[in-house]
Design brief:
Keywords: Membrane, Transmembrane, Transmembrane helix. The protein has 142 residues and is an all-alpha fold. The chain is built from seven helices and no strands.
Length: 142
């Protein structure tokens, strides 16, 4: 939640420059259409890469949110969805931080097991690599 000081604080110089540049592009009808198309395509590419990366280890959801932020530059529906996402992620984070450490540890372990299962399944189905069998084979060598 934004404080009153944050709400009335002037935007940083880089943000004012970017906003001014975008406003200049939007002032021309052709520029406005080109900007919408460019933002739409760039956001779609970033979201698509994020969606492909979701089952893999790494920041898949983070990439999707970056793509959504790119779309939010030009599209109101994306700004609303980004605000909704930010609000719920922050609420989830606050809820987790209020829980006792054993529950947080259990949730962390469950998340680790879930991500491990997704990685195992992804490698098994796409590359035919069974990580469990590879691990067992490595243990047999010792």
């Amino acid at each position: 939640m934004e404080t009153l000081e944050e709400a009335v604080r002037p935007a940083p110089a880089w943000r004012r420059r970017i906003t001014g540049t975008l406003d200049g592009i939007r002032a021309n009808p052709t520029g406005r259409i080109a900007l919408k198309i460019g933002i739409g395509v760039l956001g779609a590419i970033v979201v698509a890469v994020g969606i492909v990366a979701i089952p893999l280890p790494g920041p898949g959801w983070g990439i999707v949110i970056v793509g959504l932020a790119i779309w939010a530059i030009e599209f109101a529906w994306a700004r609303h969805l980004l605000h909704f996402t930010r609000k719920h992620v922050q609420a989830w984070t606050r809820w987790i931080m209020r829980q006792p450490w054993p529950l947080r540890s259990l949730l962390g372990l469950l998340c680790f097991v879930f991500v491990s299962a997704i990685v195992w399944l992804s490698l098994r189905l796409t590359l035919g690599i069974d990580l469990i069998q590879v691990g067992l084979n490595l243990l047999d060598r010792f």
